[in-house]
Design goal:
The radius of gyration is 19 Å and the shape is extended. The longest helix is centred in the N-terminal third of the chain and has 16 residues. The chain folds into 2 domains: 39 residues, no CATH class; 65 residues, no CATH class. The chain is α+β, with helices and mostly antiparallel strands and 108 residues long.
């Protein structure tokens, strides 16, 4: 979060800087609220404590070697032709093995 703020605050070109102090304040306030609510960054190397056991840490799983994301097929109403595909990443707790799915192709 701090790197995003710095990326747009400490710059060589004015075009890369926040357009106003109000913009910087909005980003800082948003990040603070995210931290207060227990928000976590979804990046490798950043510890994410398991929400189920409270002890383990989540890590991205490559279920197929060198493949960090997958397509999940969802049958919308049980029909063979009523299928949606959702891109996901799989994160697993190293203690209780709880898994979380995160969408890789968010809606626009």
């Amino acid at each position: 979060m701090i790197n995003v703020i710095l990326k747009h605050s400490v710059v060589e070109e004015q075009k890369d800087c926040w357009s106003s102090a109000s913009d910087l304040l909005l980003v800082a306030d948003t990040n603070l609220e995210q931290i207060k609510q227990g928000g976590q960054l979804l990046l490798d190397g950043i510890a994410r404590i398991c929400h189920v056991c409270g002890v383990g840490r989540y890590a991205r799983q490559a279920l197929v070697k060198d493949t960090p994301s997958y397509n999940m097929r969802l049958w919308n109403s049980g029909g063979a032709n009523d299928i949606s595909t959702l891109g996901v990443e799989v994160w697993e707790c190293d203690t209780c093995h709880h898994i979380q799915f995160f969408r890789t192709n968010p809606r626009s």
